[in-house]
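seq:
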Amino acid sequence: MEANGARYLGLLVFHGNSKRDLYSYVKDNTIKRLRRWKDNQVNHAGREVLLKSVVLPLPNYAISCFRLRKTILQQISSEVLWFWWGSKEGERKIHWIKWDKLSLCKGDGGLGLRDMESFNKVLLAK
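struct:
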């Protein structure tokens, strides 16, 4: 379904009639990039920088053009949360703070991580 694998700003140029393929490509690409860093020993400050500068900006163009399904955005947020707490395959860590609290602005006591659903709505409203 690709046109020679051509991409523009991280999206496939030709994705056929199925937006499901496009949405799953965005999700898989973001999660794949995040999982590359899961096995590395990165402290919380490094994880915050990595999330804000590398992982969360990946789906920006897709989010600004399309309203992604809520389940896809929740899966991306779930992977981000697992990465933040240092969870690995077969090992689960305790999530001490809710995602709602982590996604608040730093001035409000959060980390400033993006809530993907709200961000999708904001970019589409532009």
